[in-house]
């Protein structure tokens, strides 16, 4: 790479007194003084959340209102700070619309004091059931409050559009004699 | 009411006057801490403190919101916090001097106020300045008592018995003495000019302001225009004396952790800050009296002219209040300038401060003094 | 008021001599100087009072403290008073007391002369005039003395540096 030597010019007298520079600086700061303020006044004004924002991890339901999580526990295993605890459970027989789902979580806790918002759980989930969504503000008065339980996770997560409807396909396949 | 006041014993009168001035200085010092935060925020494109509010004031439709946005209640919250916080006394300090230091900081800061005239009224044809103690040697007493302020910094640093406060106090003692010299030299031309032959000699402020309110082009010009170099040296020295940026090496949070007040908290810490702002107010007042026309509203427009235009010549009370308002306005403008500079010029290194003080400012002040001595000798021959 | 300031002066002075901590000593000196300033103010010699305050209290004692802090960071204990100096100081003190007592008891100051002493303390112009006419020689001599002292200090500290390097 070519080296360009730049000659360092000796300072002029005006520059050595600092005064023109200081006056220039004062002008700059004064411009900022009268300029429109940049601050977003948070509780009243909310920031625009960009697409792909990784906020609080949540559980989502499919458009049919079924929970997507099958408690495979992959997220629990992948979670670096071990923030996720899942107690797997059977699907009760009296829920015909979930009949073809293999399993469901009995309990699903995410300890938000531990969570590092890495998004590995979302990445690893085979059912696209856990998403890091727009929620960015978590607070509570006790440690217990900072653990998101299953119902809270679904409340935060809501329903996301689904392209696969995997369990509908399963059901249809079962109804057609499981012919692949 | 006035008769009642003037019939009081002289001691009580003095007490009331003194209390009145202190009652003005203290809230201004408090308001300065708010202004500091607000100006800092505005220069950084932020709105600054704007949350705290007292409910029954928040109910006032427009004003309440305005006061909240201005952050007025943050000052009260801060003051209350400082009063009621635990006033800690670390175990490793020299207790006597540790407690004495903040008190020592307040004494000179409030004493210097007494000799500074802050307004004037007109009786007959003479302009009478308003001051607590209109001494003949005003400027000298300001310098003398102001120079005692350094002890609070030295003692605070020394008594804290820890590393950074100590370094800060060493810096303070050296820096304040260095800049006192240039400061004193820079005001001498003003008093040379003012003490023209044939008049009684004085070092008081009233005469200086009187000289800046004479008729004519040269008479009406403020000394800031006639002696820009003096004004500049005085201003720079003032920044150094009050430990304001860019000369706050004494305090410098980044390398000395706040230096002399590192070990202080709560009310004692607050006293240091009230003292610092009082110093700023008195320093600005002196600067304005000497170089920017005192209570004259504009250059070439003395107060007496304004009084004639507004028909206030025979109403001393209203005119006095007007002059005090003009003067305070100028002082607050100066304080804004202090804050403005704070967010413009970065802090000098300690060696740069010393070099600037001894090798640049002091020779400049001496040359300036000689130049004006010759000029004044020719002019007033 | 006079008694108060006189007490300040005396106790400050005693404090300078007696205190074992150098910083305490410097602060006692400051108190003593403040007392002297107060006495001057009582005499209506404002100029003298404030010059004293400016030069001694404002600068000299601050420099003392600066030096003390540079030299030993803790303001260390200085050695206690030894016997010989103690005896000497007691004798000197006694002499001063005896002298003062005899002066008060036997001396007669002619009253009219006191009244004829020109009052120079009240007017700046007077001060300046006296300083540059009647007392010009002493002022110049003291100035040169200080200059010599300053040069001496510079020379001494130079030597010290060379020896160190």
Describe this structure in words.
- The complex is a heterotrimer of chains A (180), B (381) and C (165).
- Chain A has a domain at 57-175: 2-Layer Sandwich (Alpha-Beta Plaits), CATH 3.30.70.3270.
- The model of chain A has no long low-confidence stretch (mean pLDDT 83).
- Chain A has helices at 13-16, 19-34, 74-78, 120-124, 150-157, 166-175, and strands spanning 57-59, 84-89, 104-111, 130-132, 147-148.
- Chain A has 6 helices and 5 strands; from the N terminus they run H-H-E-H-E-E-H-E-E-H-H.
- The radius of gyration of chain A is 28 Å and the shape is elongated.
- In chain A, 18% of the residues are buried.
- A 3-stranded antiparallel β-sheet of chain A has the order 2-3-5. In chain A, strands 1-4 form a two-stranded antiparallel sheet.
- By secondary structure, chain A is an alpha+beta fold.
- The longest helix of chain A is centred in the first third of the chain and has 16 residues, at 19-34.
- Chain B has helices at 2-7, 10-43, 55-58, 63-70, 72-84, 95-111, 138-146, 149-160, 163-194, 205-212, 217-220, 223-226, 228-241, 253-256, 266-291, 303-309, 316-342, 350-379; strands spanning 119-123, 126-130.
- Chain B has a two-stranded antiparallel sheet.
- In chain B, strand 1 and strand 2 form a beta hairpin.
- In chain B, helix 2 (10-43) runs parallel beside helix 17 and helix 13 (228-241) packs antiparallel against helix 15.
- Chain B is globular and about 65 Å long.
- With 165 residues, chain C is an all-alpha fold.
- Chain C has a single domain (2-118), classed as NADH-ubiquinone/plastoquinone oxidoreductase chain 6, subunit NuoJ (Four Helix Bundle (Hemerythrin (Met), subunit A)).
- Chain C is built from 7 helices and no strands.
- Chain C has helices at 2-18, 22-42, 46-71, 83-106, 111-116, 124-132, 136-164.
- The relative contact order of chain C is 0.07.
- The model of chain C has no long low-confidence stretch (mean pLDDT 77).
- Classes of the chains: A alpha+beta (180), B mainly alpha (381), C mainly alpha (165).
- Chains in contact: A-B, B-C.
- At the B-C interface, helix 7, helix 8 and helix 9 of B face helix 2, helix 3 and helix 6 of C.
């Amino acid at each position: 790479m070519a080296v360009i030597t730049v000659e360092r010019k000796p300072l002029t007298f005006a520059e050595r007194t600092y005064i023109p520079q200081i006056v220039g600086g004062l002008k700059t700061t004064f411009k900022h003084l009268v300029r429109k303020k940049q601050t977003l006044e948070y509780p009243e004004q909310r920031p625009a959340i960009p697409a792909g924002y990784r906020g609080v991890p949540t559980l989502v339901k499919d458009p049919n209102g079924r929970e997507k999580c099958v408690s495979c526990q992959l997220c629990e295993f992948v979670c670096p700070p071990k923030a996720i605890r899942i107690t797997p459970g059977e699907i009760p027989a009296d829920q015909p619309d979930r009949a073809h789902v293999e399993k469901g979580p009995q309990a699903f806790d995410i300890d938000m004091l531990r969570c590092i918002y890495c998004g590995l759980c979302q990445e690893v989930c085979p059912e696209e059931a856990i998403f890091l969504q727009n929620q960015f503000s978590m607070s509570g008065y006790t440690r217990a409050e900072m653990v998101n339980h299953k119902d809270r996770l679904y409340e935060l997560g809501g329903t996301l559009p689904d392209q696969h409807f995997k369990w509908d396909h399963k059901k249809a396949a079962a109804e057609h004699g499981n012919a692949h | 009411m006035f008769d009642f006041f003037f019939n009081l014993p002289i001691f009580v009168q003095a007490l009331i006057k003194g209390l009145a001035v202190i009652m003005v200085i203290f809230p201004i010092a408090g308001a300065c801490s708010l202004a500091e935060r607000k100006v800092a925020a505005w220069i950084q494109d932020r709105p600054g403190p704007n949350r705290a509010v007292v409910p029954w004031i928040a109910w006032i439709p427009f004003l309440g919101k305005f006061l909240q946005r201005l952050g007025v209640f943050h000052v009260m919250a801060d003051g209350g916090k400082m009063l009621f916080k635990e006033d800690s006394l670390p175990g490793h300090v020299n207790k006597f001097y540790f407690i004495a230091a903040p008190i020592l900081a307040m004494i000179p800061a409030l004493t210097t106020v007494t000799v500074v005239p802050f307004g004037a009224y007109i009786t007959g044809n003479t302009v009478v300045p308003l001051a607590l103690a209109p001494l003949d040697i005003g400027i000298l007493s300001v310098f003398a008592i102001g120079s005692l302020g350094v002890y609070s910094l030295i003692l605070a640093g020394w008594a804290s018995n820890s590393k950074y406060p100590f370094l800060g106090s060493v810096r303070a003692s050296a820096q304040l003495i260095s800049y006192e010299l240039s400061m004193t030299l820079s005001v001498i031309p003003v008093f040379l000019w003012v003490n023209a032959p044939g008049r009684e000699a004085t070092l008081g402020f009233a005469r200086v302001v009187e000289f800046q309110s004479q008729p004519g082009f040269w008479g009406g010009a403020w000394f800031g225009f006639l002696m820009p170099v003096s004004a500049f040296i005085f201003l720079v020295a003032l920044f150094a004396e009050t430990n304001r940026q860019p000369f706050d090496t004494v305090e410098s949070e980044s390398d000395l952790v706040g230096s002399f007040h590192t070990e202080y908290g709560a009310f004692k810490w607050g006293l240091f800050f009230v003292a610092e702002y009082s110093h700023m107010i008195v320093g600005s007042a002196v600067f304005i009296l000497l170089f920017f026309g005192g209570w004259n509203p504009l250059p070439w427009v003395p107060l007496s002219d304004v009084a004639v235009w507004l028909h206030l010549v025979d109403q001393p009370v209203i005119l006095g209040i007007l002059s005090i308002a003009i003067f305070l306005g100028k002082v607050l403008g100066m304080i804004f300038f202090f804050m403005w500079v704070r967010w413009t010029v970065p802090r000098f290194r300690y060696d740069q401060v010393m070099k600037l003080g001894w090798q640049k400012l002091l020779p400049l002040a001496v040359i300036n003094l000689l130049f004006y001595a010759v000029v004044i000798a020719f002019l007033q021959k | 008021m006079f008694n108060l300031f006189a007490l300040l002066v005396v106790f400050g002075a005693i404090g300078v001599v007696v205190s074992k901590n150098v910083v305490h000593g410097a602060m006692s000196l400051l108190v003593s100087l403040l007392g002297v300033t107060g006495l001057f103010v009582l005499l209506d010699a404002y100029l003298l009072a404030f010059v004293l305050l400016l030069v001694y209290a404002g600068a000299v004692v601050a420099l003392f403290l600066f030096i003390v802090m540079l030299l030993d960071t803790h303001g260390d204990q200085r050695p206690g008073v030894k016997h010989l100096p103690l005896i000497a100081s007691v004798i000197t003190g006694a002499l001063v007391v005896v002298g003062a007592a005899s002066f008060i008891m036997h001396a007669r100051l002619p009253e009219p002369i006191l009244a004829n002493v020109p009052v120079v303390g009240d007017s700046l112009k007077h001060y300046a005039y006296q300083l540059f006419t009647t007392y010009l020689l002493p002022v110049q001599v003291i100035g040169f003395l200080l200059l010599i002292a300053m040069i001496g200090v510079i020379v001494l500290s130079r030597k010290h540096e060379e020896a160190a390097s």
